[in-house]
Queue: 2 jobs
Job 1
Amino acid sequence: MLDASTLTRDLLKAFRLNENVDKAEGMRAYMRNQFVYFGIPGPLRNELQRDLIANVSDIHQAFDVAEMLWEQEQRECQYTACDVLAHMARRKTVPLFDPENLLWRTQQLIRSKSWWDTVDALAPNVAGVIVKRSDVLDVETVAREWIVDRDFWIQRSALLLQLKYKADANADLLFELVLAVAHSNEFFLRKGAGWVLREYSKTNPTAVRAFVDQNQHVLSSLTIREGTKYC
């Protein structure tokens, strides 16, 4: 079994061999010059990271790899970190031992180098899956704790926890969280609230339409516009 350091080192070597300066500049500009890039497009990155993902043995090693990749400057490293965590979290054959620790580690990644690209991958695909699969974590407890955090990226993550739960989503909790941030002027919270409403409307459009109609006086126009696209 390869250790996390070896897996990370081999991936970084492959990334460096495929660096494209011209593409890197375009990717950096798209992300408002907040991050640097190797310039590796998504399909190629998926190919280069395939061996790493295949050789990760358990969820805790996945986090070890992800945390090492998070320390790297280039943004593709964080994308691979999100991918390996999501892959391992959703595999039903992979036990999620010590889910409280796994969730805490996920939260630390959300707080670090935060922007919509990594937050929107980690919150529903890692944190949300860990909570849903756990026998000791409760989505209501986690979401209500996160929604009052001083970091708005954690608040956005609270909104996104149930993004992919579909019929298993707790609608009352979802609506409660949307109202909890309705007063905020933060774009990413308004947009995130609209996103979760829109996604849940694919399962229960009647409930979302009724919620928006009842609360349109407190919801932002962005949240309403995003949330009612399908209802």
Job 2
Amino acid sequence: MSIFNSINVSSSGLTAERTRMDIISKNIANANTTRTSSGSPYRRQMVVFQENNKPSFSSYLSLYSNSNVLSNKDGVKISAIVEDKSPFKKVYEPGHPDADKDGYVNMPNVDMVKEMVDMISATRAYEANITSINSSKAMAMKALNIGK
């Protein structure tokens, strides 16, 4: 395992969590958008993470040596950004331009409380990855100081 492997894994986590925060921000910004280019209300989006397995020399060595000591795990990647298929919220607003004949408007399926909880979770995960990178850097510096 390379000394920089932990930094690479954490940096992939930083990228993934940044994208997650961008999508959450997009959801919050469109919480009241009743008409998109397709004509329907905005649908909440979610990020799907997947383990990132890049083939490397250590993975082939581990495969052919029947040893699980070497790891071929290289962090996380975004596999998809999917739309939430939950139903739209119906709000009674007869004066709204997008109201139906009964006066109800289909509002986006964005729940502000859920979005804020997801944003806090993404922020904490981002901070944890930064802490991990800083710890790895500190250990590398200590190792270099031992050699003096």
